[in-house]
Design goal:
This protein has 182 residues and is an alpha+beta fold. It has a single domain (8-179), classed as Pyruvoyl-Dependent Histidine Decarboxylase, Chain B (3-Layer(bba) Sandwich). 21% of the residues lie in helices and 42% in strands. The termini are close together.
């Protein structure tokens, strides 16, 4: 058994505002409820047979101080009225023995819906090309995409947006937390 293969994953996100950039990031981690863990950023593979669970279920499995692997998108601004976003897109093949893809994207001046849709597309496009396939349609239909082989990719996203304030740092983050049970 491979002890570093995540069997569960969950999505979370948060935002923070403070006069200090680092503190605004810490507040975003707290808002996302992942501040008590030692986070290690990893690249973007959603493991085969990995089960996507709720944040509440995932947090029950983890312990404060635990090393936790995350795919994270983060964005900050100290510009008043600047709209910022951080998003994680997920593409999971309908065949559970195949791995999926997690895509991170940061943006400025774009709505939550637009950023979320774009990040789902990025995840699907990167997975399709990794599989040597093409997306049949570049717009998700009913929560997913199809690739040229006929395989369906279920997609979803977690996107956080916030607007900057005068004299404050604003930070947003979105994360996919990969849970390794012992």
């Amino acid at each position: 058994m491979n002890h570093f293969l995540p069997t569960k994953a969950f999505l979370t996100g948060g935002f923070g505002k403070h006069k200090e950039k680092l503190v605004s990031f810490e507040q975003a981690l707290r808002n996302a409820e992942i501040a008590p863990f030692n986070l290690v950023k990893v690249s973007s593979i959603f493991p085969p047979y990995c089960q996507l669970i709720s944040k509440e279920e995932g947090l029950k499995i983890l312990q404060p101080g635990q090393v936790v692997f995350v795919v994270m998108s983060e964005n900050s601004t100290d510009e008043p009225q600047r709209l910022i976003s951080a998003s994680i897109g997920v593409a999971i093949p309908s065949e559970p023995s195949l791995y999926g893809y997690l895509a991170e994207h940061e943006g400025f001046g774009v709505s939550e819906k637009e950023v979320g849709s774009y990040t789902e597309y990025l995840a699907a496009e990167m997975l399709a090309t990794k599989m040597g396939q093409n997306l049949i349609d570049t717009n998700p239909v009913e929560g997913g995409f199809k690739v040229s082989s006929g395989l369906t990719l279920k997609t979803l996203n977690n996107t956080q947006v916030a607007q900057g304030e005068h004299g404050m740092w604003t930070t947003v983050l979105a994360a996919a937390v990969l849970v390794i049970e012992s």
